[in-house]
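Table S5 (text form). Sequence records supplied for joint modeling of the three-component complex.
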Amino acid sequence: MVISPVLLIVVPLGLAFAIPLLGFISKRVVGFVPVLAMLFNLAVSLALLPVVLQKPEVVSIGGFSPPFCINLVAGPLGVGMAALIALVGLAVSVYALGYIKEGAQEKYHVLYLLLLTGATGAVLTGDIFNLFVFYEILCISSYALVAYLGDKNGIEAAVKYLIQGSVGSGLILIGIAILYGLFGTLNMAQIAQSIGVVDSLPLSVALALLVTGFGVEAAVFPLNAWLADAHSSAPSSISAILSGIAIKVGIYAVARVVFTIFGASSMFQFLLLLGLLTLLVGEMSAFKQDNIKRMLAYSSIGQVGLIVFAFGIGTSAGIIGGLFQIVSHALAKSVLFLAVGYMVYRAGSMEISSMEGMGKRMPVISFAFVIAAFSLVGLPPFTGFPSKFLIVRAALARQEMLFTVLISLVLVGTVIEGAYFFRVIQVLFFKGPEKDFAHREEAPLSALIPILILMILIVVLGIYPDSLMPVLKSAASELLDRVIYIKEVLG
Amino acid sequence: MRILISAILLTILVLGLAFALAEIPFGANQINSSLKPGRYYLENGVDETGAANVVTSVVVTYRGFDTLGEVTILFIAAIGLGAVLYTRRKQLPEVKPRSASLILQTGCRFLFPLILVFGAYIFIHGHLSPGGGFQGGVIVASAFLLVYLGCAERKIPRRGLSATESLAGLVFVTVGLLGLVYGGEFLQNFLPQGTVNTLFSAGVIPIIYIAIGFKVGAELTGVVADLLEKRQ
Amino acid sequence: MNVLYNSTYYVASVGLIVIGLYVMLVKKNLIKVLIGLSLFETGINLLLIAIGYIRHGTAPIFSQVDLRAENMVDPTPQALVLTAIVIGVAVLALALSLAVRLYEHYGTLNLREIRDLKW
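The corresponding structure-token record, covering 842 residues in total, follows.
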């Protein structure tokens, strides 16, 4: 049975509208609605994946044909990312059943589901203004969710995030305005087709504005000032979603603009250097932190730098490495934030030094933290190893001195990463207060189940990375091959 | 220092925009070929959708997905505002509002139904004249704002507003899904188009715009209420 | 100079964008920064509408039978601006609620003083 990819966006949206109505009937059941919606999304995207690997499915909304309507391009990249969003969203929504106990809970679940809907819509759409609208849905839900707990830090972080995010969105809109003025269309394929007919200076301006605007959410240097505050002050389930999904949608949008729409190979070197700079700034800042959530937030910035670096390599192998890194970082960082959520709750503070002996108090959670940390650093047999290995190999395959120098700097970043993670692991397991706690206070089941599922995936993908390769290869070629993309959409 | 950096960044922005806009002369006809969506909408909009207002047919039919996203964004803002202000309401003591002047008190009772009717007119006739769901909804919300300012002892039922919001959003999504079932694509028109320039024309467009009008009106009223009063 | 006169709307919209950004970058009071955000977004909307203008065009509404499509302006930017205005309103509403809570926590709206989250 062929299911229309539109349902990936519409069903969660409808369920999100229905949550307040369900809340009138029973407050307890609203937490399960995001779980159901993400289960549906996961099932549908996994069912669609084999179909779209051969040929992307172009869905036109409204019954007209592109470019006179908005179209969704459900290709391997879009459906693959939708599956990742559904998976991580499902895990965090199960976690939130036990974790979110205060505040207006019904509103939390509405905002959370809409954040995921915005992310799914952004990766599936084939129209640049539609991308902007869904990207805004993602951003505005995240502004509200960062401020959800209502505490001093959360509100301050949310205000700064909102102001910077809105400037970014405004720049995107100016870029779209210039593109529309030049080409008279908003369809990505039609714009890609018409580029080359026009003078290059206005195009460069539009490209710069779009990359800067989307780069705010992707948190590339120097636009990442908001991330450390926002990801550390949000409730931990939201930090997991922001680091795991929201940043990736920003990177996806930058990649889509640079590769598919503009085909701007002159940007590649810039992306390379920008990625490297972001990586080094992120990892070095993470090293200095005492606050564990801030440390993880800066680590996310570092990983974003690595992914952008991988995209900047410009070859298909580089993009495959970057996409694999997106998957492994989403899985590992989510586990890290989910585990830290309960560790902070038990310890009562976010300082690393207060986590002493947590390894004995919460063994499963601390073990999960260790596994995810190893994966992030890139140790086998976890999923971080094949992804980083692919990136290094893609860089060396270019056989230029520049790339060898750059990749060695990347490895320096990895070493710093290992240093600060091992410091935390040392505090968790090897430094313990001498008095032992009378009982192990493990985290509740609602937290353990999603963490275990994600951990299993981290290990499985680490041992069998080839299971993911067909999807990644098709996704990379969809991103790079503009001619085929234009032909699929416009006919 | 801050001013210097800002000045440099802004100068770069202005120069970039100036060079880009030099290629887009003001008033030039960019939609001269029928391959451009703008020309297509002007030439075929009325025949394909039945709405006399081409902007409405673009907003609701051709780019209806954007409108769905926009409605969602307003929903997020209203819910987010409620979530952020949630704990505040329980903490602050009840403050009796200052009573308004005599003109406002008499006027608000008289003007409230008139403004409501005006707002409803705007969103019902969205396919015939300039206007539509969002504009009409904002006018309806301003009527409720007048009530809050003028006759503050009247309480607006918050649960009713919340229910209206959600139901109207569901109506929009359902109409789209019905288009999927009966027409083949999401948001496809499945009602008869009728004659142009009459009230009952343009298929599903009036239904969607009425739903949007109710939704926006309820949402913005909720926003005003959250900012002004203490939750029951 | 003639070019500038012909493109008054472009100059006005870029001017609003620049003023809005300047206010957001330089001012200390949160409410002023939000006003700057509002100016910034208004400038962008004006730019979009101005790009869609066609000389001697009229509103794209077929209210009478003898109106022809060649005399009308581009309807797409108007639809885009409709969406953009609503997005701007939504962000502003959320920002103002955050400002209310921020004032309750800190007692001031001076952004230079609200730096609890340090480096």
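Note: The radius of gyration of chain A is 21 Å.
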